[in-house]
Design brief:
- The complex is a heterodimer of chains A (about 280) and B (about 270).
- Chain A is about 25% helix and about 25% strand.
- Chain A contains five helices and nine strands.
- In chain A, the strands form two sheets. In chain A, strands 1-2-3-5-4 form a five-stranded mixed sheet. In chain A, strands 7-6-8-9 form a four-stranded antiparallel sheet.
- In chain A, strand 8 and strand 9 form a beta hairpin.
- Chain B has one domain: Ribosomal Protein S5, domain 2.
- The two termini of chain B are about 35 Å apart.
- In chain B, helix 2 packs across helix 3.
- Chain B is elongated, with a radius of gyration of 20 Å.
- Classes of the chains: A alpha+beta (about 280), B alpha+beta (about 270).
- Strand 9 of chain A pairs antiparallel with strand 12 of chain B, so a sheet runs across the interface.
Chain lengths: ~280, ~270
Amino acid sequence: MSKKPTTKKTAARKPAARSKKPKVDSWKRADGRSFDELRPLKIESGVLPNADGSAYIEMGRNKILCGVFGPREMHPKHNAKPNEAVLRCRYHMAPFSVDPRRSPAPSRRDQEISMVMRSALEPAVFLDRYPRASIDVYIEVLEADGGTRCASINAASVALVDAGIPMKDLVAACAVGKIDDKIIVDLGDYEDKKGQSDMPVAYMPKLGKVTLLQMDGIMTAEENERALNLAIDGCKKVYEVQREALKKKYGIDQPQDKPPKEFPPEEPTEEPPVEEGHQ
Amino acid sequence: MSKNNIVSHLKQKKISEVLSTGKRMDGRGFGDFRELTIKSNVLFKSEGSAEVWLGKSHVMVGVKVGTGTPFEDTPNEGVLMTNAEFTPIANAAWEPGPPNEASIELARVVDRGLRSANVLTTESLCIIPGKFVQIVFVDLYVLNYDGNLIDACSAGAVAALMVAKRPTFNVIEKEAKPTGEKVPLIVCKKPVAVSVIKIGDSLILDPTADEEDVMDARLTVTFDEDDHICTMQKSGSVGLTVDEIKKCINMAQEKAPQIRAKALGD
């Protein structure tokens, strides 16, 4: 079935129906943030005892768990690639994550997000290290508040590192959009629905590559360029939080005079203690 | 459709070699489209239709107008739905069965293009608010695959909607009765999708199946006639730099009005 019609189109067609006076200086967003301010962001790694790698993210009121399994034997075998591992993503929303309840069966939107997530993460993973294997990334959205695909990517790249999978870079993601003709970063649910456009972006800060880029709504090419730069700045902020989450778990506090470690932290020899407070 | 077989590797090498000399396998320039032909109103039973040929890619677009209940959050609006079908006759590698990722992506990108550009005023499709609305189904039926389905289907969908008619209803005592008459759907915008493909360091438009097979990444950008971007979608397993994205958008921006003028008679 098709994506349910968004209410975005009405807002886009009637930009005059603004709820706020567009004063340049005092303009504030619905939740009081400034245009370039992210929502509170919390990432925790190693939260699922049974997964090879995992992460929990709270981005605003989004609450998302990600579990990574693998590299492990591909099943069914005919999906395996002889020369590299296959990264499989499954994005799934809990029935209670949105209002009204949604069916737990995968929708077309879920399948598309699973696919773009895979494309967003693949460029960061050394897949050729694990021929014939699968690396499974499972996303469970417990509560959705706009920008779940970006939050999911943020959690997934931390979880991949937590699983000890060699990575070229962390993938950081955040959305930008337009509301009241203003370009803003990290859209909340309200802004996502009422805004004129939204554009999720994933970025690898060290490599300078955009790995996810989607856009819906109406924007000029100039606005688009501004939005992209704002998104990349946002991704860099997210990147720092992701690094902190990993440092916290693995205690890598490198003094400046030591050369940085060449590889991501090795797999933990014992199961990490179960972190609390992720449910 | 897979980069894993030897043929693909050889193909990729050859295509990249030719691209590095500034040419393409079929002799086109990087920014050239194949012949695009759209024939509207080719089917009788559907409310609107268009047959699209883009090189050897061949798509039939059918518009059907049904009725149903509106979505809870938009009680005063009708519904526009886009669906894509990869028929097994279109490609030796395609099998019957549930839609795969590629067909879902095709449907979603075309769908989002139509919605974001506000192609239809969905309010005009509402008959009894909250109870009874018209649903416009756009079915993209791929009959032969030779690359660049997104661009072909997005142009075809608009062409089919432009000629589509919807039945009208009278509301008598809270009951909707069909009048037996049909009025044209009003198409407010004509969005056109242009996909830019990256192979190695080359950015090219309108890829063939072979080029799509070996592509590193794709960026689809949809423009409406006001030169606004309505939808973007990046796919493929290689990242793009900000410069590359700008180049892609410029290429698409330049091409979109040409396609619209040629295919949709702007």
